[in-house]
């Protein structure tokens, strides 16, 4: 990828915009014809637990989108002395999974139920048994079927169900579509057809036929598209939703909306067989592109696809950095109470680097980072815990090593199924997300934990929204019959050399010792969930 040369010029019509609705931030990234970021904007938001469901208000979707876009537009005007009016292509991505339901007038039927909800255990288990295919708690079909089991009245009125990125795309273009990688978080995909699995659709319709609904499943889900296919154009009403000032014009081409899993794969150039990536932020998930289908299905492994439809094994953990962030905020409060000042980035860098100074056994400390449920280990709810023994050594390095190990532990349990039970080969994992911002620390500890090389590119911090901008660029810049894999290899990443680390034997042994304690500690976590309401 060529970097912007710093000249005070750029061609708006050749630029591509990617906007991702993440768990804690809405971020917009504008790239030029060399795929270099030239402007960005963001808006912080947070999900809320309301009436037993993790949710976001859809009004804030538009407030956040407009705020992020306005910041990006202001940067363009300041740097290039032009108003941003015309963009070559746009793409939207968002948190995988979730449930948004609408009636035929387009009215929202129930508050947005996000990926973080683990209230669908009965539905997920029944569908997994029916399909002989793992249906995770957070998938859209699990939410829909659980609503049916709960006898929720809104189900009768459903005309359309989608995910967050699909909703935004629909409101801006009028098109009810999803990229195949995003659609794979709603319902199982047939990689041969690059569409929903027709056998399973029939099974589901037969399962709920006695309810007498006027809809069938295929008609209420978005149409599935591959990367590179045109997914509509920006309507005038849509342009005003993005930019209320009226500067942005309509008619801009949009690519299929994708999930943050797919954009992570693109951002790390890991969409070919035996490649994999890890997206590490509020949640964490690894994506391994398979050479062949797994021999069996596992409740701990999601089967999704690349943005082009290739089968991909996904290990998804609901909890990752939330607990680390909470402790960091506590330390920041202490610093402020002492009338001292510290930059937030410096604070995190210092804490992460301290983790490398920990004792071999981590001071015999243990923690559980579960703020919400964690299906891989069988938890519908979480209770963050920190435990020390009377002979533990409580120091800052040991404490931070324990926090990071705790974040990696559930991912390790899921990855072991692929590597040990299925003998899946992974040449390397490419990391991206906030966990890798501190150079080498998270990268090395993850490599030690998973016992596989972990690489980080210069683009790792740009991650999802940059990956979405690349998919938008692919729509208008691909050559005839060019594959996404070839586009990434020959154009986007031809100049990129990732920074790689190998697992360290001592570090791997240290993590193994931690895991022995961690597995035992899950019994305490279960008691905490049952006892502390």
UniProtKB/TrEMBL annotation:
Family annotation (Pfam families): FGGY_C (PF02782), FGGY_N (PF00370)
Keywords: Kinase, Transferase
This enzyme's EC code(s): 2.7.1.17
Broad enzyme group: transferase
The Carbohydrate kinase FGGY N-terminal domain, residue ranges: 17-241
Annotated GO MF terms: D-xylulokinase activity
This protein's record includes keyword Plastid: no
InterPro entries, per database record: ATPase_NBD, FGGY_C, FGGY_Carb_Kinase, FGGY_N
Positions of the Carbohydrate kinase FGGY C-terminal domain: 277-474
Family the UniProt entry places it in: Belongs to the FGGY kinase family.
PANTHER family assigned: SUGAR KINASE, XYLULOSE KINASE
UniProt protein name: Xylulokinase
């Amino acid at each position: 990828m060529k970097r912007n040369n710093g000249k005070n010029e750029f061609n708006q019509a050749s630029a591509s915009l990617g906007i991702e609705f993440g768990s804690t931030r809405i971020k917009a990234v504008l790239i030029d014809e060399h795929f270099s970021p030239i402007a960005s904007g963001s808006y912080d938001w947070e999900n809320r637990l309301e009436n037993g469901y993790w949710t976001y208000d859809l009004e804030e979707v538009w407030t956040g989108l407009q705020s992020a876009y306005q910041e990006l537009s202001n940067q363009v005007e300041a740097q290039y002395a032009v108003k941003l009016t015309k963009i070559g292509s746009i793409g939207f991505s968002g948190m995988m999974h979730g449930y948004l339901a609408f009636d035929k007038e387009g009215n929202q039927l129930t508050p947005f139920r996000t990926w973080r909800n683990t209230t669908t255990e009965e539905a997920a288990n029944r569908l997994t048994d029916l399909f002989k295919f793992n249906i995770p708690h957070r998938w859209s079909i699990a939410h829909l079927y659980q609503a049916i089991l709960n006898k929720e009245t809104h189900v009768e009125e459903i005309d359309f169900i989608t995910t967050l990125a699909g909703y935004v795309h629909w409101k801006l273009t009028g098109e009810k579509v999803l990229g195949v990688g995003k659609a794979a978080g709603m319902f199982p995909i047939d990689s041969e057809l690059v569409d929903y699995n027709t056998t399973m659709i029939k099974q589901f319709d037969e399962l709920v036929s006695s309810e007498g609904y006027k809809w069938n499943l295929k008609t209420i889900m978005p149409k599935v598209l591959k990367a590179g296919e045109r997914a509509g154009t920006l309507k005038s009403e849509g342009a005003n939703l993005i930019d209320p000032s009226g500067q942005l014009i309509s008619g801009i081409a949009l690519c299929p909306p994708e999930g943050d899993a797919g954009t992570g794969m693109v951002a790390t150039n890991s969409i070919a067989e035996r490649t994999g990536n890890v997206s590490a932020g509020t949640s964490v998930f690894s994506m391994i592109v398979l050479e062949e289908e797994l021999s069996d299905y596992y409740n701990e492994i999601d089967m999704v696809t690349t943005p082009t439809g290739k089968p991909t094994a996904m290990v998804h953990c609901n909890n990752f950095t939330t607990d680390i962030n909470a402790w960091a905020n506590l330390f920041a409060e202490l610093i402020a109470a002492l009338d001292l000042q510290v930059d937030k980035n410096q604070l995190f860098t210092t804490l992460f680097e301290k983790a490398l100074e920990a004792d071999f056994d981590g001071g015999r400390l243990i923690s559980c980072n579960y703020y919400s449920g964690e299906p891989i280990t069988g938890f519908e709810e979480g209770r963050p815990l920190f435990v020390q023994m009377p002979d533990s050594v409580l120091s800052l390095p040991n404490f931070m090593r324990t926090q990071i190990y705790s974040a990696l532990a559930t991912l390790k349990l899921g990855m072991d199924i692929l590597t040990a039970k299925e003998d899946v080969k992974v040449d390397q994992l490419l990391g991206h997300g906030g966990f890798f911002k501190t150079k080498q620390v998270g990268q090395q500890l993850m490599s030690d934990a998973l016992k596989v090389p972990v690489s980080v590119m210069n683009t790792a911090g740009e991650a999802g929204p940059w990956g979405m901008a690349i998919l938008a660029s692919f729509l208008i810049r691909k050559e005839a019959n060019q594959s996404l894999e070839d586009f990434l290899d020959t154009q986007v990443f031809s100049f990129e050399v990732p920074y790689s680390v190998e697992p360290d034997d001592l570090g791997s042994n240290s993590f193994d010792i931690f895991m022995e304690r961690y597995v035992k500690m899950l019994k305490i976590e279960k008691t905490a969930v049952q006892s502390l309401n």
